[in-house]
Amino acid sequence: MSTEICADCPVRKHALCSSLDDEGVITFTGLCQRRCIMAGETVMWAGDESRICANLLSGVLKMVAATADGREQIVGLFYPADFVGEPYAEEHAFTVTALTNAELCTIQRRPFEHFLEEHSRMENLLLQRTLRALKEARRRMLCLARLSAGEKVAGLLIDMAARAERCARRSGLNQPVTFDLPMTRGHMADVLGMTIETVSRQLTKLKGAGVLALSGNRTVTIKDAHALRARAAAR
Amino acid sequence: MSTEICADCPVRKHALCSSLDDEGVITFTGLCQRRCIMAGETVMWAGDESRICANLLSGVLKMVAATADGREQIVGLFYPADFVGEPYAEEHAFTVTALTNAELCTIQRRPFEHFLEEHSRMENLLLQRTLRALKEARRRMLCLARLSAGEKVAGLLIDMAARAERCARRSGLNQPVTFDLPMTRGHMADVLGMTIETVSRQLTKLKGAGVLALSGNRTVTIKDAHALRARAAAR
DNA sequence: CCGGGTCCTTGTTCTAGATCAAGGCAACTG
DNA sequence: CAGTTGCCTTGATCTAGAACAAGGACCCGG
């Protein structure tokens, strides 16, 4: 019965849980609890005690670092099947907030750490994912520090298009030369370390150059992927 | 006999190996090989096959990300007892170069991964370190994207002073209100995502304000730690 | 159909920091 | 010890992008 919660899990093939055998899943499920989150709602607050971790089932979350005087930087985005939380940390270093409505499969941090000890395949998978996240974060450091506004925006569009494409594949759809941005201009600015205005201007420029078409605020069509890639330059 | 290599290991209490029991150490040592590196020498090249990992015994290394056209960003610094390398990755994403003469304890990547499988305490320690490195990288993203030149330099000085202090503690010395920068202005600029000139100007400004004293190019004395902290602002 | 959100675009001005340029100061080298 | 080299400082100028400001498009509730 406790496995039933997993029967309809949209990410059971991709989340951390994919490393578990049937018996492991049953134990794990017993420790988990599903939770729905509304867009804009915060899941973890920087400075709060780190009590829960979670697998993201659906929706998109942002992880935000902030200075004392309120400047903000998005330091990570989470998509379905991603693991969220800070095991082994006493308190959260960052605030995690939903960009869209979302669903989480949560687990208490301590029991989770304990579970890892006894399920080294999951521990190993988490290690591999953490290493990948670290690599990604380091790449982003180069982006934030050294790329121009144009390069940043082009790069982000490519990332988001790739993400959309993968999701489309998964759900069997096709051809996402057109896709919806999962975030506002403001969030794009927060990811790229720029202002809303500059993001907007760069998009307008890409549109003017015939690289993109924009319809509505969120829908983007990549008309010239080659040109877009050229503008992203980096790596 | 193979353990002898560890007998004089300067970091055996702090490196990944500290998670091993005697028998583990013996096995591990058999897989390791010490290697000396000259300042300026590169240990791993971005794009090359990821064949080795290492524990740093002495010296300081930098990890550099670069764009195709040569812009560079230091995305990580490694100090004694730190783990270097990219397990589970087919190729290196970043270039690792010695800032000072250094000594490494290297191990082939594949055998290392295999060893982790069988020594879950080490795997767990690596996981914890990787999580900490990730947190650190994310903090740095905020720094790179949102802090002013003055805040960046003040913050880096505080970090380096703290690092120097810890090393001094370890080796039994005291009072490192005065310490040596482990890097040139150019490296500081590469860490902070700015230019040499701006770093230099910020240091001159701090000196002028009586916060620091500079003697020679590398030696720094923090005269007013409180003021320095105030200038670092962030977090 | 109106009023007030929220989000986005566009124009103008301003500035932090990059870029360009010129020395200064040690430390080596022959 | 004159010359070279590497690293650092300081000054002058330039510019990408921030900051400020205004208005437009869309949506939703009454």
TrEMBL record, chains A, B:
Keywords: DNA-binding, Transcription, Transcription regulation. Residues 147-226 form the HTH crp-type domain. GO terms for cellular component: cytosol. The keyword DNA-binding applies. Residues 16-133 form the Cyclic nucleotide-binding domain. InterPro entries: cNMP-bd_dom, cNMP-bd_dom_sf, Env_Response_Regulators, HTH_CRP, RmlC-like_jellyroll, Tscrpt_reg_HTH_Crp-type_CS, WH-like_DNA-bd_sf, WH_DNA-bd_sf. GO terms for molecular function: DNA binding; DNA-binding transcription factor activity. This is CRP/FNR family transcriptional regulator.
